[in-house]
From TrEMBL:
NAD(P)-binding domain residues: 7-180
Organism: Sphingomonas abietis
Signal peptide from the UniProt entry: none
Family matches, as CDD domains: TMR_SDR_a (cd05269)
Name this protein carries in UniProt: SDR family oxidoreductase
């Protein structure tokens, strides 16, 4: 069986390929990348693959049995890009597609959900057997700000008391690999999240504990948080989007206690405290 991974040079794609190499022969893995030379260090066959160039996709999928479609990072363009990939996969004879969607995409208040739901619908309509991995937030989305919080003396956000069941990229990669090489996952939708939930106040308290400094959590209004992010140099539109996701988090968008992720991998997800330690290191 040949397994191909899109977005192979991205942070999640690389981890999936490295984990796959521990389970199956490298020659049975295909790295699909928009810039193939950036994937030359992966130790597996590499093929050029650009979501936005549909005519090139089907030839790159020749001989592929199972495809991991890692969602595009082009917010606003993803429905069309994913549809191109699904159509190409069907034309190339791919027998199964595994797609990385969003936690509780069918009910999520996050603006990201609509594009993921559209792709889930396109997969259902394609006739190609599919598995949906509805991934929650990466813990790294938060721990990437640990240094700034320590320097600034506070962790800021707009998530209120919203509980966050995040997991690391490695956790999600391991779940993807379990599905890619396992049997009986066709037609399944998995809500994937960390075993334990925390608030951003809990995260700030853990940073404080590990640094010995007082790093409180400061909850801002959506507008103020967007302005703060823009002040850090983020484009205004993106800053507003991030702030809105924080508001959605306050409403419970990133909480899940089903533990489907650890059930797939057979091991507990990475504790938040361990991720904070790594970020501080």
């Amino acid at each position: 069986m040949t397994i191909a991974v899109t977005g192979a040079t991205g942070q999640l794609g690389r981890l999936v390929i490295e984990a796959l190499k521990q389970k199956i022969a490298a020659d049975d893995i295909v790295a699909l990348a928009r810039t193939p030379e950036k994937a030359s260090d992966l130790g597996v066959p590499v093929r050029g693959f650009d979501y936005a160039a549909p005519a090139t996709l089907a030839p790159a999928l020749e001989g592929v049995d199972t495809l991991l479609l890692v969602s595009s990072n082009a917010v606003g363009e993803r429905v069309a890009q994913h549809r191109h990939v699904i159509e190409a996969a069907k034309a190339a004879g791919v027998t199964r597609i595994v797609y990385t969607s969003l936690l509780h995409a069918d009910v999520s208040p996050l603006s990201l959900a609509a594009e993921h739901l559209a792709t889930e619908a396109d997969l259902a309509a394609s006739g190609v057997p599919a598995t949906i991995l509805r991934n929650g937030w990466y813990t790294e989305n938060y721990t990437g700000s640990v240094g700034g919080a320590v320097a600034g003396g506070a962790f800021i956000g707009t998530s209120g008391e919203g509980r966050i069941s995040s997991a690391t990229r490695t956790d999600y990669a391991d779940a993807a690999v379990a599905v890619l090489i396992g049997a009986g996952h066709e037609g399944k939708v998995y809500e994937l999240a960390g075993d334990d939930a925390y608030t951003l106040a809990d995260l700030a308290a853990e940073i404080s504990r590990q640094t010995g400094q007082d790093i409180p959590y400061r909850n801002l209004s959506e507008a103020d948080y967007a302005a703060a992010l823009a002040g850090f140099g983020l484009p205004a539109d993106f800053a507003a989007m991030l702030a809105s996701w924080g508001t959605g988090t306050a409403a419970g968008a990133l909480f899940d206690d089903g533990r489907a992720l650890s059930a797939l991998t057979g091991k507990s997800t990475t504790p938040m405290a361990e991720s904070v330690k790594a970020a501080l290191a």
